[in-house]
Amino acid sequence: MLDYKISGGQVLDGAGAEPVPADVGIVGERIEAVGDLSGAPASALINAPGCYVAPGFIDVHSHSDAYLLIEPSAPSKLYQGVTTEIVGNCGASAAPLVDVSFLPADWRDQVYPGPWRTVADYRVLLERARPAPNVMLLVGHGKLRSWVMGDQDRPATADECRAMVRLLEQSLDDGARGLSSGLIYPPGRFAAPEELSDLAAATARHGGIYTTHMRSEGSRLLEAIEETLALARGTGVRTQISHLKTSGHRNWSKLPAALELIRRARAAGIDVAADRYPYTASSTDLDVILPAWALVGGQAAVLRRLRDPAERERLRQVLAGARAENDWATIVVGSTGDVSWRGRPLLEVAQALDVEPGEAALRLMERDELKTSAFFFGMSAENLSKILAEPYVMLGSDASLRALAGPLSLDFPHPRAYGAFARFLRAALDGKTVALPEAVRKMTSLPADHFRLAQRGRVAPGNYADLVVFNPATVRERATFAKPHALAEGIEHVMVNGVLTLSPRGLTGHRSGRIL
Q1: Are 41 and 2 in contact (CB under 8 A)?
Q2: Domain membership of residue 141 as a residue range
Q3: Number of domains present in the structure of the chain
Q4: pTM above threshold 0.90
Q5: Would you say the C-alpha torsion 375, 378, 382, 384 has a positive or negative sign?
Q6: What pLDDT score was predicted for residue 48?
């Protein structure tokens, strides 16, 4: 007797094969059989005529670490068909945590079910929360560095590197599966290559993966890729380049050389892959535009500089000389305390305030106490298509989960939080990107293999029953840059570890995700 039988659908196996008509039988947490199961009795039947049945989607670049403690049902992700989130990216994991002041700005003021410091502490809270999706944990390099040496703007000493390695190894023993870095953000931007190499080597010894937001995605993109590949070559660590892109119009022409570097490395045996979200605008804190010297010392120190007249004038002059008006035109305000500015170009804010764009940005950052986010429209649609077509590039939302009600409904996120996977599916179905079987592979078996998620990512007997049933006629994103809080449509059923989590009626209330 099957627990569930999904019948009448076209099965996309996740490995890139063309869809075939087949039933899928589930017993407990596993797929029992795939094929003609018309004679097999089942306790529950899911009819899927006109739909595709695929492995659950794996979000390889998520920032839901802390938010899973607040909203473990993860609606913005489940409605996209995401059954596994890989969290802790860009060097900014939830743990280890020396002090709450080192949390990212959008996590800092939330109310959590309890305190944590170590990865073991965080795991206890996460297991109690019972998240709906599976979760794989990465350890953020920024968290290791801040634990050992705070926000200091200098290379780590040999003793400090050893202390970071010990903390990393303890975190891996406590259940993390790899290391991430955010080398454009403090304190990661202060790290020397040798520091990262020590940590990557320790990660490799533990069989983990290293994911990196590289030092540059624009003017020094090629140098950043070379640094990443040198680290992978020297340590043997499995490597993931986060949200591969060419930022800024003047850097769009670098894509062929960037892709060639990665292809050659892979051909030489380096285990490197990449991910990308299907949008041409990025999103991060607005203070990323500040020069490195202004970010030293953490939030309190940055705010003191913003409020000191002499330092403020110095910052204004630096920003005025750093960007042409065309560059300022690519910035749109995201989350900010004044809701009237949300979703509006920074140039409009500057005009309304009758100040230069740089001064407008400084005013927003000061008033919001560095919690202002922004969208940066600096990427090429043609390059996006080429990146997504690379066989080693998988999907990652680069977003925390959100919800339509409660504390996670109050900000103004990038629409990728609600729409990345649905948008990519729609594009594949409409012939605007890779073919549908390849699109599904990029969201399932490709990440499962690279991140070593055993018995996931394929519709096959014996694998875990992480499954998605979607309607090709209706699947789409609904979130926009103007109205980002909108659930995706067309994902009709989602099953996580054999438990029905989403149905056409909505979330079922059953949460069966695991820490992988």
Answers
A1: yes
A2: 57-281+378-450
A3: 3
A4: yes
A5: negative
A6: 98
Read off the pLDDT of residues 46-68 as tens digits, 9 standing for 90 and up.
999 999 999 999 999 999 999 99
Q: Give the separation between CA 184 and CA 221, rounded to whole angstroms.
A: 12
Q: What is the Cβ-side half-sphere exposure of residue 245, based on CA atoms within 13 angstroms?
A: 29
Find the Cα–Cα–Cα–Cα dihedral 469, 475, 476, 479, rounded to 10°.
-50
Q: Is residue 513 part of a domain?
A: no
C-alpha span between 165 and 95 (Å, rounded):
15
For 230-274, the three-class secondary structure string (H helix, E strand, C coil) is HHHHHHCCEEEECCCCCCCHHHHHHHHHHHHHHHHHHHCCCCEEE
Distances from the Cα of 302 to the Cαs of 145, 161, 223, 297, 314, in angstroms? Answer: 19, 26, 28, 7, 13
With pLDDT > 90 as the criterion, what percentage of the chain qualifies? Answer: 93
Outline where DSSP puts E strands in 354-509.
373-376, 393-395, 467-470, 491-496, 499-503, 506-507
Please, are residues 387 and 244 in contact by the beta-carbon 8 Å criterion? Answer: yes
Asked if the model's pLDDT at residue 324 lies above 80, the reply is: no
DSSP 223: H
Q: What is the pLDDT of residues 69-88, one digit of tens each?
A: 999 999 999 999 999 999 99
Q: Are 65 and 148 contained in the same domain? A: yes
Query: If you ran DSSP here, which 8-state letter would residue 58 be given?
Result: E
Residue 64 forms part of a structural domain: yes
Q: Which amino acid is at 414?
A: H
Strands 82-87 and 57-59: parallel
Q: Three-state SS across 370-410?
A: CCCEEEECCCCHHHHHHHHHCCCEEECCCECCCCCCCHHHC
Render pLDDT for 438-457 as a digit per residue (tens, 0 to 9): 999 999 999 999 999 999 99
What is the C-alpha to C-alpha distance for residues 347 and 316, in angstroms, rounded to an integer?
Answer: 15
